[in-house]
Amino acid sequence: MKFKGVRWYMCGLLMLATVVNYLDRSCLGAVGPVLKKDLQIDEQQFAYIIMCFQFSYAAMMPIAGSIIDWLGTRKGYMIAVLWWSIANMLHGFAGSARSLAIFRGLLGIGESGNFPAAIKTISEWFPAKERTIATGIFNTGSSVGAMIAPPLVIWIVLTWHWQAAFVVTGAVGFLWLLLWIAFYRAPKDSKYITEEERAYILAGQKEEDMPAETQSSDKWYKMLAVREFWAIAIARFLAEPAWQFFTYWIPLYLFTVRGLDLKQIAMFAWMPPLAGDLGCLFGGFLSPFFMKHGVPLLRARKYAALVGSIIMMFAVFIGMSSSVYWAIFFFCVGSFAHQSLSSTYLTLPADLFPQTAVASANGWSGGIGQFGGMLSTFVVGYVVMHIGYNPLFVAIGCLDLIGVAALWVLLRERKVCQA
Length: 419
Prior knowledge:
Elements: H1 6-38, H2 43-71, H3 73-90, H4 97-111, H5 114-125, H6 131-159, H7 162-183, H8 195-203, H9 212-215, H10 220-223, H11 227-248, H12 250-256, H13 262-268, H14 271-292, H15 297-312, H16 324-352, H17 358-386, H18 390-410
Helix pairs in contact: 1-3, 1-5, 1-6, 1-7, 1-12, 2-3, 2-4, 2-17, 3-4, 3-5, 3-7, 5-6, 5-16, 5-17, 6-7, 6-14, 6-16, 11-16, 11-17, 11-18, 14-15, 14-16, 15-16, 15-18, 16-17
């Protein structure tokens, strides 16, 4: 049986995988206040535990991308989700900060495959003009997962205990695997896609806007030699600190600075991820909006990134807010802005590199971005204990503008010869 718009069903599968990814990833932040008491973990140790995830995630992203390009999207994604689901369940058996850090590192290894596999899927299933829309839709899963985590995990903790939270959230990944194994195939092998849709996808995947320097970058060592890759990598390196903070530190900030208890945190902590969902969709539609008004593909991506970076500057007001309500509002604005940027940054490898190297390009640029997030986590742990949170919000508000400036300088557009 054949269906219309099968590519959007595949996008839905990617979104569900990303929901699971961020549900598992965000579980630690939601149980952070409880772990501080039960395992005697302070803010600096908490930062080290997060860094174990970030280091393994960052180090593995290039490797995961290469493996996915080698094995193919279907097998590669399946292995990644299976790995991280088991690793998340193991968190429930942690008895100390050290064992928790080890399991966190294992989680990072598995989760590193999510975005390289998803972007490779987007490059295979979507024409260029729809890629940021598809990326924006599937990337809402990151915010949905982070939004679901606080109320769900805190409910599990209050009903049973924190160990059960990791086991339950980890088990969700096995449900997704059943859907993926049953339904996912590449467009050329799918029995559900119509010939009209297949032709539409292929017609929109021409490399007319791809710079000549990147068209032959089908190997990772060739890719690292072109400036377009570094345009993406630098922008992601400077954007990642904000998202790492929003993912891991909001519950602790609300607990230690704003004086909220677990139930109050559950009432508010889902709001920034919801704003992030809206940001994913906003950023996804920005590039097509500019293209509809005659802006070339890559320049439209630059304009979209610039808009997101300007909105991110409102994050500087988080620490200056007179009430917790205003602080939550500016957390929401920052989450919206970051996810708007992500819709562009995650799509760029599919715009700039051949399909055989898309996962690798995303893996390498994402790995560099994650090292930026890991470095920022180390800084956050130190600054919070010795100075406070306010300088961090100023940095979060300004770093994306620097990243977008690098994108504009380094990302060259294909020159069109005039008659």
